[in-house]
Amino acid sequence: MTDRLRHSAGGFTRLLQISSAPVVVLVEGALDVVFYERLCLVAIPEHEFSIRQARELPSVTTGGKPGLLQFYDELRQRRALVTTLEGKTTVVIFVMDKDVDDVLRKRRRSTHVVYTESFEIENYLYEASDAVTPIAVVARVNAATVRRILPADWCAQAARAWQEWVVLCLLSQVLRVSCDANYSVRSQVNASVLGPVNPTAVRQRLRVLRTRADRPRQEFDALHQTLVRLVERRYATGRSGTIFRGKWYSCFVKEWIGSIAVRDWPDDELLSALLLALDFTAAWAEQLRAAVRGPVIAVWPEHLTVKAPERD
């Protein structure tokens, strides 16, 4: 891995301006580079583009999403999201995982900031691809066997299994309380990956959340029920992926397939295989394609006439 570039905000902007690419897409991490490169080839085929990771950005205290947001704020304040130098116009687009920013109401409102519709890009990798062949390849088993064992609606089953955990994770996020009910770990209230929920474990974590949040019981209970209903609505309308973390799916794949797998595969290897199986012209990517294309069309409206990719 190369060292992070060390430019000032102005110097980095100048670097982007003198590069050959008129469209610069800034992403969170390494997996995002390949994901959004493939997306941009479909969304903006008429433009050369450059994909840069957050770790390359100047004047940021951290990489990833916080680094992207910090640099976006700097460019917005400097009116440098779209710049022209010596006849060359440069458009900068920030793309990032939504996480639960919609629930927290903290998304940046700008055409230059593109959020995933799902929780994170891993949701697309598992939910929008035919996962059978990638799983068979990394597990070194027959694809027909994987298809027989893996339920047809396995992503929905996974989300339903951890529905109570999702509520607790959302509650800790809304309350800004630190505890073991959080999106960085697997469910702590299910007896096993696909096992039943332990009501005592749920009640215990609710007590911890209420105590650490220091909220009146009635106010806390009302918020809890509001989030329960929000989760139920999204699950009922097929949108569990907007609040269920995509990285968690690996736990379920290994639960179903692990006993027949020839090898214990690393999660990154499966994600790479799933990424290669994605069709970026399909309907699942429509929101992302349109969002990335938006700021480009605003600068080069003549490309509105470019035919959109046909869906399967």
Describe the structure.
Helix content is 49%, strand content 8%. The protein is of the alpha/beta class. Strands 1, 2, 3, 4 and 5 form a 5-stranded mixed sheet that branches. β3 and β4 form a beta hairpin. Mean pLDDT is 92; it is low at 1-5 and 306-312.
Summed up:
By secondary structure, the protein is an alpha/beta fold.
**What characteristic shape results from the CA principal axes?**
globular
**What's the total count of β strands?**
5
Biggest sheet, open or closed, and with what strands and sense?
5 strands, mixed
Figure out the total of helices.
14
The share of residues in extended strands comes to 5-15%
SSE class: alpha/beta
List the helices and strands and how they pair.
Blueprint (H helix, E strand, L loop, with lengths): L8 H10 L4 E5 L2 H14 L5 E5 L10 H14 L4 E4 L2 E9 L4 H4 L8 E3 L5 H7 L4 H8 L3 H7 L4 H8 L1 H13 L23 H15 L3 H20 L12 H9 L9 H11 L8 H14 L13
Parallel strand pairs: 1-2, 1-4, 4-5
Antiparallel strand pairs: 3-4
Which short descriptors sum up this protein?
312 residues; alpha/beta; 14 helices; 49% helix; globular; disordered C terminus
